[in-house]
Amino acid sequence: MTEADAARRILKAVDDGFDDQIRFTADLTRQPSLRGQEAAAQDMMARAFRDRGLGVDRWLIDVEAIRNLPGFSPVMVSYENAWNVVGAWRPQGARGRSLILNGHIDVVPTGPADMWTSPPFEPRIADGWLYGRGGGDMKAGLVAGMYAFDAVRRAGYAPQGDIYIQSVVEEECTGNGALACLQRGYKADTAIIPEPSQCKLGAAQVGVMWFQVHVQGRPVHVARAGSGSNAIEACFPIIRALHELEEDWNKRGHAAFAEHKHPINFVVSKIQGGDWTSSVPAWCVFDMRVSLFPGMDLAQCRREIEETVANAARKDSFLANSPPRVVYHGFQAEGYVLEGGAEPQALLERCHQTVFGQKLDRMTFTGTTDARFFGLYADTPAMVYGPESEDIHGFDERVNIESIRRVTQSIALFIADWCGVKAA
Amino acid sequence: MTEADAARRILKAVDDGFDDQIRFTADLTRQPSLRGQEAAAQDMMARAFRDRGLGVDRWLIDVEAIRNLPGFSPVMVSYENAWNVVGAWRPQGARGRSLILNGHIDVVPTGPADMWTSPPFEPRIADGWLYGRGGGDMKAGLVAGMYAFDAVRRAGYAPQGDIYIQSVVEEECTGNGALACLQRGYKADTAIIPEPSQCKLGAAQVGVMWFQVHVQGRPVHVARAGSGSNAIEACFPIIRALHELEEDWNKRGHAAFAEHKHPINFVVSKIQGGDWTSSVPAWCVFDMRVSLFPGMDLAQCRREIEETVANAARKDSFLANSPPRVVYHGFQAEGYVLEGGAEPQALLERCHQTVFGQKLDRMTFTGTTDARFFGLYADTPAMVYGPESEDIHGFDERVNIESIRRVTQSIALFIADWCGVKAA
């Protein structure tokens, strides 16, 4: 049988399994695997791995075991339900190259449900798109990796390299799920992360940092508001100053992001303050997410943020003596540029060309993905490559169904070539 | 016995009961009678009334019964624990003038407890002050009314007019507790409200209005923050515009507030927005408390507020098509100027002069009190007159103990003269 025949068989096998793949993707999207609630969705993945005869490794993330590893992000929540699951294909002999297919199971909150056209955890297919929270980011991609593996098997082949399908938690807030896979010893010659990259290859991603600013006020009866200090309004000039730092960081630029007009985004994403409508508020806390270019040092970034907050506070007569606190909880993620891995990149380009009939474009992420762990801390070229998605983190998040099929086909061809196959 | 003798006996009776009065005030301050949690403190008042042989009327506020009365404020919470208590002295014959002594049992939240020197609901006496949330605003005053009545009795006199000691809820948010007393039919020739007026007579108070502004955003992944609309930051220009309206209202001025530099205060007192640190926030709600001069029409004020919000929103490309909602919940309180009631005012001045040895000063409140209900809607001159307090609604709220004694003495003399007494 020629190589072209093999490819045709594998592509057809993806098609043959595709209805089931979309059904499984929808079922997985139905799981409301919000932070701290991923366990049932992970059980579903563990069952799917077991059904395929893969070795199943399901473990609770042990914060103490990863706390001192590079890439760790501090957490303020309990990990008592933070389960990772890995399905492993371990061929006899294993003469081929190994591969990690990594995806995350956690999804971000829906926001007000009434702003969705249909309920966020009731997946709906319309006009060629699958709607639902987490369908695009990134259950479709996670499932695509597994069904790509299935297709190779269904086509009658046994991959000759180790394959680890990793379903991890915590991607949306820390990356500690992927980090825990490194800590547990998983290692391969390359990794694919099918985040919704619009069927392009993720060539670079920014770093991301989360922090909270805790601001105090001096509460008085509102009748004498002038003599108090309003903790809510005291946040505004601090936020303004942080936006100035954002512009400064954007100006520093980075070659990989030259095409982006505004790659660095500082976003005030949560705020809460005050207890009583007739009291000048005594406290306010806002959460900010900032991004940074690859190569920027996290400790230096933290210093700049803290100085910016302190300088803004010094201009306020009350805050000058009650300086705000900056608290880090969540992402302390460095930027990452895909470097090395010429071989797997070239192979993915060929597979993509075969399926899509056009060359594989590159893109850069102004967000982060778990790719950084493999690339920065495990010397494993990590390629972000996944389907087309819209409004992730927004309302009516959706993923394009045809793009899922094609990405699955590309990955299936990649598996067959990278790992090598023999007739099963 | 001369009138001066009677006064001396009454003043001494206040002194004799004063240790017990402060003990009771501290015990009442120990009750955390926050909104919705006043019932146990009200039971304590009901027991105290019963112990004195007063008629006790304890009832749950019926929103439907007061909803259409002037002065009603809309509520968004349940009244299932909103109990009012009135202790009534009903002398045989009742030839004297009648009196309402009205105080509120509800207290505002403490804010972060660690910002208090000692726990807010563990009353503490130091340097002549009683510390604790609600001690000043206004349990000391509420209790002073009851102990003033006691002192008259202990001095051997029976007041000859009806006296209603009203312990009401909801003063800090709506005034619906006092309104429910009107609705239930309580009525007298004058009223004293021992709010912490620094031993002065409250001659005027502003109106107060609460509202929320609900702002929407367009959530996107923070990586593309520029294409979303940040609901939190969208609040800032709206708040700025409302502060401009505040300055405009201040400029309109009012004779009774001529001595205040800035009588009208608009305060952003609560804010909450956003769900997830890596999503552009889809929603934010802030609470504002505004004040207005006596004579300003509430409906017109609401129109001006809504126009201000709408105009500010129109400048935002997203909000122009998703205008914020203004929701009223809580105070819709008109301003009030003490008018009429020359006789009770003159009497209170004389009683105060006797106790303090100096004339009764007047003050104006840049907040509201329940006095407005009696004055505006029941044709009853309502005099705010109570002890000296500091940091009400703040940390380490405290009330001056000597000022409690003296105010109690003034009110006791007032009761004896206003209602008339005969030897018991």
Automatic annotation (TrEMBL), chains A, B:
CDD domains: M20_ArgE_DapE-like. Belongs to the peptidase M20A family. Coiled coil: none annotated. Its cofactor is Co(2+); Zn(2+). Residues 205-316 form the Peptidase M20 dimerisation domain. The keyword Zinc applies. GO terms for molecular function: hydrolase activity; metal ion binding. It comes from the Bacteria. This is Acetylornithine deacetylase. Keywords: Cobalt, Hydrolase, Metal-binding, Zinc.
